[in-house]
What does this fold into?
Amino acid sequence: MISVILFLILLIGGFGFFGWNVLKVRSNIRLGRDIDRTDNKKERWKTMILVALGQKKMFTRPIPALLHLAIYAAFVITQIELIEIIVDGVFGTHRFFKESLGGGYTFIISFIEILSVLALIATFAFLSRRNLLKIPRLNMKEMNGWPKMDANMILYMELILVSCIFTMNGTDEVMHKMNGGGSYGFSISSFLGPFFFEGMSMGTLQILERIGWWGHVFMVFSFLNYLPYSKHFHILLAFPNTYYSNLDKKGRFTNMDSVTTEVKLMMDPDADAFVATAEGALEPQRFGAKDVADLTWKSLMDSYTCTECGRCTSSCPANITGKLLSPRKIMMDTRDRLTEVGDNIRKYGKDYEDGKSLLGDYITEEELWACTSCNACVQECPINIDPLSIIIDLRRYLVMEESNMPTELTGMLTNIENNGAPWQFSPSDRLNWANEE
Amino acid sequence: MSLTVPTMAEMMAKGESPEILFWVGCSGSFDDRAKKITKALVKILNNCKVNFAVLGAEESCTGDPAKRAGNEFTFQMQAMMNIQVLEGYDVQKIVTACPHCFNTLKNEYPELGGNYEVIHHTQLIQELINQGKLVLSDGGMYKGKKITFHDPCYLGRANDVYEAPRALIEKLDSELVEMKRCKTKGLCCGAGGAQMFKEAEKGNKEINIERTEEALELKPDIIATGCPFCNTMMTDGVKNLEKEREVEVLDVAELIANAADL
It folds into this structure.
């Protein structure tokens, strides 16, 4: 009875706290500017199924893709066992589905056990890639400190989780046999159980089995509640994030409607600026982005979805040639600043200013001006995150609000405005080439 | 052979309208190296009797570098002026040898009221060959030459055009060799996003050197491109690495024009 109450507290508390954090993240994302991503639902579902569920883009790098698939499949399929754990926990039963599912039950648990072993192997491989092989993209300077610890913690949690599953099933196997019930016949634990636990007393086995069971439950809820604080949130956000992907050609940058309104006014000699402004009645907004709330909500969702794998940065021509820019850092900075802004708003109210901003305090101009807009980062991201649109929004603020840009670019822009070309040539010479030898 | 380059204004004065507008672009109009690409394309168009025209002095920057630099005002001013001019001539179809103009005209003008069918010159040339209007004899001057193609970002990743330029190189009876980073994984030449017009930020290498080294590893006879800016960057890279006697940097249009002996 006590264990049922304890379980219910853990269950309600676990889901409750997670829900509360999810709402917080949701309200943070909604601080962003609007962008319409509701069109073309069919294409959106297709993208989500291929890219998030099917992990299509992961397979451009087959080795990490297979390791990742093992953990992913184990994670998804283990949720079936979690259903039983919840039922057992709430009603105080033991292996509730075993009777009703019969041979099917043995099959499912066996399958989960095989996947768990694969996940265990993958976890060790991932730990060694990070800590022994020191794969460059996993060990760049923006990964120092918390991000590195975050990544390792997730893997350690995975190890504990899998150990708990096998302790639980292994001891249960031995006890089942001791009680004359024979073997469960599960694929792995029917061998592992006797190997590790045979010869132990019933009392020890019972305790170990409970440790395994509670450990599993406890890890699941810890993991769930760790997600919103971790880069590992991608396991959930990958789905909405790919659904709301940019479906346009990557080369198309967004049109700034606020600018269109003004340019049209300038170009129309009959326009009455006062009337037009009143009719437009657009809330005055800054051009481009200085802080997170100036970015679109999709950029903000991108930032929470990023799992810091660094494929973007390892393909970035600026980063490859030693420049300061790292698209992954752009995403991490955006998320960290957003969390800070969100917390401030909840603590001090909507209009609180902490005197900081994404541009300047987190992302420097030097990083922004190193971008060639080549879209390699966008192409590489396995879950369709778009660092480029953040970079461009920040550039827009620098250029249009502060006229702050490298001097050569000022010259280039002046040339376009005066001569209709980025260089100082006369427009009347445009066709000279046709008559030159 | 002298080039025939009618302007839209001349066409209109004669009461004619061309099938396609050739958008030359700033680089193709003013840059000495890029002008050769422009002329190569015109030779092909003349040879195939394509009914085309250019805007000449009425053409103006599409606004691409302004938009990538973050100046939406300058971009939209340019775009609206160009759209007015194009509207005046009722332009329906545009070809350009510059992937930056291509991307902007194709993807960013529609929202401002300019809707055209825009194709890259490699796509047009492929069409001409497929229609039998342009015939390349077997065993031309590039027979057996090793050619690698550098994907321009604004043609490749930005617009998913990977095959047209490659199909043309294969028509030359040459050996097309791919760099490790090609197609969707192509490495930028370093010029995009308005970088062409500024010094690179502090780093330990120039991007065009990184890319040229990758191309040179294949020991090609020719590095082919489909963008005047990539052409500049790769040419500079080859010069910098002192390989200009062994390796040529050429636009696909130049390869085809040379191979067809135009």
The two ends of chain B are 8 Å apart (CA to CA).
